[in-house]
User: What shape does this take?
Amino acid sequence: MPRNTPTGRCSAVAYFMIALATAGSIVVPCASGGSIFDDDWTPPAPRRPIVPPQEIPATGPVVPVAPAAQLPVPAPSTIDSTAARRRPVPDKLVQARSRKLFKEVFAKDLIDRSATGRLVLAAKLLAEAGKSADVPSDEFVLLVGASDAARDADDLSLCLQALDQLATAYEVDGVQVKCETALKMPMHFDGPIEVAENCRAGLELVNQLVAAGDYSEAARLLAKLRQAASGDARFSAILQRKSRDVNALQAAEERVIQPLAKLKATPGDPVANREVGRFLSFVRGDWDRGLPLLIKGDNAAWKGLASQDLTRPTDPRKQIDLGDAWWAAAEGQDGITQGAMRRRAADWYAMAIKSGSIAGLARERLEQRIAATVPAEDDLTTASWMFVSARVSNLNLDVVSASKDDGAAVDQAKPNPKQVWKLVKAEKPGFYYIKSNVSGLDLDVRGASKVENADVCQAVPNLAQVWKVTPAGGGFYYITSNVNGFNLAVLDKSASSGAKIVTAPADPAQVWKFTAAVSN
Assistant: This one.
């Protein structure tokens, strides 16, 4: 039965899996209370041990399996080097001193409680934290403050970024803390850019929760993301598919609870061995522990496959035969089991190919099957094509006369289904190429000018001509040129169709809204 912990609910199966994976005590963070900006803030407590349940009875010697997809193990000195550098959470008294300094240094910034103000504060705190590693309590408080500021602004992506840095530097259970924080956020995403950025971050956290076997929390987070992205058809479909996958994993976990209890009481029970072996091998991918249980199970086909697999064949022909056996066994199985069996087959196929002795059509057949096991990646980019409209005029960004020429001017005009734009992530973090649907060319500062009110045009792609998109609140964004640091603006704040687009100093009125459009 599920049991309660200081950090939420953790299923018996999750505890069982942790017990298998760890030799000592388990540690989890205690939940922190309130916000660092509040006077009654409670600092996050250091992690404390929880005694794991008794492991399942031994099933006999386990022969280590080394599938082809497994990466080489680093030398002992380099294993988990990040974890080795993590520092203890600073004690409460030291944190209090740093927090007092923090509130003094950022007093003016803390006054602005708007979403935009909190986003600006979060960025400042992250930058300051990067310079404060020599004073751990300062760095810790700054990172907690950055995550709180981003949370207050309802920016999931930035919040998780701050918590990732916190968990990298300090002994904090990053996945758990991120999950707790995300589930408490309102998650109201104003436009297609925010939907894309926050759904990307949320799905990454969902994948981390699934990898940790915490399917119930993954399902809860997906439910919140689905609600927040309900107005975006593409992301709604992606999140719905992911929810179905997680629900299937959660159901598989629930089905194994009784067999697990039976196996602990009666280690030789064939049904319990089969079901727990199925869960370990096909759901969790723990083949080393799952295969010996399948051998003791009551499914003759799986017993034979597990026995053959544990011989660890080294001859390429035998590796292919084993892969073919797993592939054939996958036919007619449920989705999770079928996918796991085919991936196991692909591991053995890859090992055979690696030998260098498989060529021609025989190799082509194996490569096709391996490719078939790789799931298609969801398109998590921002909405394919978008109208970009100016706040000052409610008119849209437009290429003059729908020109396809390099250097054609850009102005504002009434909405036109063809005058839409796509954001393409640039190599520089946080920056985008802004591509015209009319011409396929990119938004550009003419001549890479660094002067105020420089003309904006379209041009062939240029690594320097990228733009930073920063939320301004209310679904609007500043669009800032990498070339000159000025913002995309309508000349003289004109409300007239045909007004020139330039780059100018930051102005709260010169902001833009992105609205998803149907691709042309």
Notes: Confidence is low (pLDDT under 50) at residues 1-10, 14-32, 46-83. The radius of gyration is 27 Å.
